[in-house]
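1st attempt posting a full record on here, be nice pls
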Amino acid sequence: MLSQRKAARSTTALFRLLVESTVMSENADKKVIPIQPVAAGKGNDAQEVSLYEAHKKIYPRAVQGIFNNWRIALVIITQFVFYVFPWLTWNGRQAVLFDLAARKFYLFGLTFFPQDFIYLAGLLMCAALGLFLWTTIAGRLWCGYSCPQTVYTEIFLWIEQAIEGDRNKRMKLDKSPMSARKVGIKTAKHSAWILFSLWTGFTLVGFFTPIKDLLAAAQTFDFGPWETFWIFFYGGFTYLFAGFMREQVCKYMCPYARFQSVMFDADTLIISYDTQRGEPRGARKKGVDPKDAGLGDCVNCGVCVQVCPTGIDIRNGLQYECIGCAACIDACDEIMDKVGYSRGLIRYTTENALEGKYPESQMWSRLKRPRVMMYGLVLLVVLVAGTTSFVMRQPLKVDVLRDRASLVRQTDDGLLENTYSLRLMNTSEETQKLAITVSGLPGITLDGGKVEVDLKPTGNESIVVRVHVDPEQAPKGSHPIQFHIRSLDESGVNLTEKSSFIGE
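the predicted structure (as tokens):
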């Protein structure tokens, strides 16, 4: 028993050492929660171990600069697409509409059917490869500028700053005791957040249900069950993620933060703090030469930490929590201007350039490395293949289904008859006049001749046709035949669909 107890104590001590070293190595600049023993009876060696840092609310400070301007511009562009596009009209219908009930997907002058999902697969492949390529070149620019979590968090921060004030005022308000003024300000902020979130959910549903119909239904709250669910579901998670969880989503929920490191190398452009130039850091009077004071260019103002939306200190090196928003670059450049030092203490650079392996003027020449070329080549192949297929796409789609309930019957004229269902789908914005004929067996006819169809713009129609063949030309078994669909106008449609004729 004594040896077992000693072994248990040794195992516990080893586990504690491993946990403390892991947490301290990943959070060298953060307060590590110590391991506290659990109140227990005599002889109980159990201990409570906390593997997560206690959450502290982050108050990002407003910043001005070139990267902040880019971030604002991309927020405006992405949200213009999201909030405005559902309200645009095209040929008397909603310009962008994914009509799941009718199985039609409208994108301005283009109409897609479920058979066109190959293009969606190609689009997703291009998006993934583009993300990998861009990450290899310049890190997490998607996260810092265009990710919905970043965009909506930025918008919620704008609302918060407009109602509660700047960073210091927000911190002071949260620390102040509850009062009528505090309740009023918080109520106004959360009301604005909730209204914006609900409008966001409403807009999302407007891409799948005509948004003008939704607006008419909103007057009496006469939404369908699915519309109601998705408005409150998406709106609720927008309110939760952008209003409360914020950086926690990026740090703990987003998988991209975890696997991005496999796409980084020593020649990837990353946001870096120039340690050789900045250290040793410390405060000094304005106009003092840092070399005379034995200091580096970093004045240890902490502004780079205050503006960070995830609350990290970039001076501790690249961390997985960094979303690449470059707010610290704008903040540091502003401080450098005030103290009279050159900009670039925090800047976009590569690990090799920062270590002096080559001058920063040669960074762009490092784009010609194997992984960049590989991602670029695969992306180019997918883009070319997808674009070529799309350009050559016919404005008509045809599905031929043979009636399996009655494979073959004999008509009063002694001919063999097979019945087929032809589903015609017009992907263009113009009416198509079509003629349908059949071939493949001697003397084969289609309902005594040819079938003509007028197919409405973006319409689809199912027609039943009967194919007749002399029994002598169609012995027992399956015989290949072809349906020919050609246009009678200037659309240039000329399709051939294969099928089979059953003889007896």
